[in-house]
Amino acid sequence: MITHFFTVFCVIPTMRLIFQAYLMIFMLGNLMASQSRSSGGKNVTNITIINLNNEKMQITWAARQLFPNENVSFFYTFDEGKNKVLKPCTTYLLDQDYNSGCLFKTEGPTLAISIRNSNGSEELFSKNLKADFYIKPSPPENVTFFWEEDTVTVSCNKPKRNAWCLTLELQYKSKFDKEWQSRTSKCCSIGEQGFDPRKCYSFRVRLRRRVPSCNEVEYSSDWAAETFWMSGTLLDSCDDDITPQSKTVIVLSCLLAVFLMMVILLILLCKWQRVQVSILPAIPDPKYPFADLFNYHNGNLQEWLDKNDHVVLQAKLEYEEPESITEAESQQEDGKNSDKQGPLEKIFTFPGAAENNDSKAPEIACLIPSSNTTAPFAGFHILMNDDMYVTL
């Protein structure tokens, strides 16, 4: 009993502490091994080191700032120990025709790089590093979505090496959100709930390296292809989340609007003639009743009256109610005044003359000297002499 108690409360905790101590020593050793030994006084922060999925190394530097007016050369090796053989770069990255980077295959965990002048005789910068601590993972492969009501579980293929160094990041947003919502979990599965089945959501995932236990720099993979989901259904885009019912409503609304516009147009066409008369009443054109006056007599009223004494002119206006004009003609011969007044006189009486008193009679009646010529004008018969004009 005492032995069992001693094993549980003393031996096991001690072994756990020893294991944690070894792990910390291993991590510190990797960090120290990754520190640089540089020469030439160049700024290390201007050099970027990326191990692309532990398959290819990409080393870039700020050529114009670090090495102005000089086209440098690059050498590297994965050999360990004192007898290192540097290899020249075969694939350079250019910046304005100057070497600014190099691509080469990853061949081991330890890397030594050297930047030299153009002919390789003088070393300008050097560094030893752990290539495993600069890994940028590839995008997740075979991403799957499993929906259960308002909960989705996203998973991807597990990498062959060091999966424990990776975390899976999920980002999503609906078409009404401006910013992405982010969730992270250990590789290679993550779940999230609370999705509205009536909304369309955009999803994207990527892998991230843990810092500082696995990487010196927090590198993340590129985003996997963005996908669009609504209530467990995969869509081409969130613009396609219109349901058939809403499409039917839109079509019926458009048809109803067209029908109403046609009805309004028919009503306007039926009422247009009346509206046009109310807004723009017709104005009679004098060229038709007095065509002969202007065409054959050049506006000479006296000549026109002489030639057309047998014609009675009538002016009819379209869309206007006919007006009745009563013309009363009275002719009186006064034997007593015949010697004083000369020829026969004719009296014209206008409508309304009978209603006026006797004192206004001279204003309504006009005395026209007798003449052998009778001329019609606008419904009146006028007796005129050959050498006089009449003003009505």
Automatic annotation (TrEMBL):
Residues 137-232 form the Cytokine receptor-like factor 2-like D2 domain. The keyword Cytoplasm does not apply. Residues 51-104 form the Cytokine receptor-like factor 2-like D1 domain. Residues 322-332 have a biased composition (Acidic residues). It is found in: Membrane. GO terms for biological process: positive regulation of cell population proliferation; positive regulation of interleukin-5 production; positive regulation of mast cell activation; positive regulation of receptor signaling pathway via STAT. It comes from the Eukaryota. The chain crosses the membrane at residues 6-28, 249-269. GO terms for cellular component: membrane. InterPro entries: CRLF2-like_D1, CRLF2-like_D2, FN3_sf, Ig-like_fold, IL-12. Residues 322-341 are annotated as: Disordered. It is a single-pass type I membrane protein. PANTHER family: INTERLEUKIN-12 SUBUNIT BETA (PTHR48485:SF4), INTERLEUKIN-12 SUBUNIT BETA-RELATED (PTHR48485). Receptor for thymic stromal lymphopoietin (TSLP). Forms a functional complex with TSLP and IL7R which is capable of stimulating cell proliferation through activation of STAT3 and STAT5. Also activates JAK2. Implicated in the development of the hematopoietic system. Belongs to the type I cytokine receptor family. Type 5 subfamily. This is Cytokine receptor-like factor 2. The lineage of its organism: Eukaryota, Metazoa, Chordata, Craniata, Vertebrata. The gene is CRLF2.
